[in-house]
Known about the structure:
The chain is 68% helix and 3% strand. The chain is mostly helical. A two-stranded antiparallel sheet has the order 1-4.
Amino acid sequence: MNRILEDRFQLQANGTTLRREVMAGLVSFVTGAYVVVVNARLMAEAGMPLAGATVASAVAAGVGSLLMGLWANAPLMVVTGLGDAALFTYTLVQGIGLAWQEALAVVCATGLLCSVVAFTPALQSVLSGVPASLRAAISAGVGLFLTFIGLRQGGLIVSGGDSLVALGDLGDPQVLLTLITLAITVVLYLRRVPGAVLISIGAGSLLAWAAGHPGGTAAASASLAAYRQVAGALSPGRLATLPFWAATFTFTMVVLFENLGLMYGLLPRKEEVPRALQANALAVFLAGLLGATPTVAAAEGAAGIAAGGRTGLTAVTAGVLFLASLGALPVVGLIPNSAIAPVLVLVGALMCEPLRTIAFDDLTEAIPAFLVILLIPLTFSVADGIAFGLVAYPLVKAAAGRWREVSPAMYVVAALFLLYFLIRAA
């Protein structure tokens, strides 16, 4: 068995071991399992049955992670994207007026269009067209986004009164538990303790449970009977209408560049990005068939990479755990926020490392990069933050009289994202 896994995932060549990969997959799963719970609740607001949506989200994450590991041999956990679920519910269903079954057909069409890009030479044009400064900014922006999510989950940042956000109550038990667990996490990581991230999650959970502050979010009970209501329920009834294709175009742009940014930010080896994009494009198509919203490379999977994950075995482990845990999702959802939040903060800090490569003394590179770094966390959307930077880059270059430094593909991408903003504003 070990030999088969070695040959399939090239563990030794990647400087890793079976134990490390499995532990990294476990860390990824534990850190990102809450996404299934939250995503299902967003889907329920589109009119989908909550129990069925919960199973669909878990199955899509499991299948997507398996595809990522087996096809791309990349250590990326795949989950249904929360931003995409919000777009599904509040734009496609409540905004445009599609039924949720028709919106699932949009998800399938999005997967097909993403596959056309990912499996053709068009992908190389897209990849080569994104400047190095923006790729570094995307990594840092996603890192700040994760940090913000972690600080909010841990209660260190709360909604403000006169301000948008404010410092939380430092005397609140949850905040204290978060700070204590963060200290444990940082010390273990700096000391290079094997399994540091997983140990910190376990320690944080024990502390919270002992203090009587479990937190977390319980999921609806998984039920195959309920799942039958959403699996294969997509309807192509609006296939020949303009709203359907406008929604598909919007989703395609968001999913493609959201994943591009996440993969550039998360993957230690950037040469894995093309096949990773291919794997996720197929996963998006399958997500629509399975009754779920589009899948993305989970930012929370950075915890598994930080724990030593280097190959697709990390993703496969997470995928198996998603599928195996369907009956245990209510329990998984009860892992305390104070145990998860510190991991997100640590990983966010690690993802800001590429900032040193940005030429901040060149404002034509610095301004678009700064917009990406700032707007990903402030808009609470990886896709929107990337879009602003991609539109700003050619505009700033042209304003400086350096328009020739921008590739033709970049101008096309900027124009498409400008159209994306116009469609959203309409």
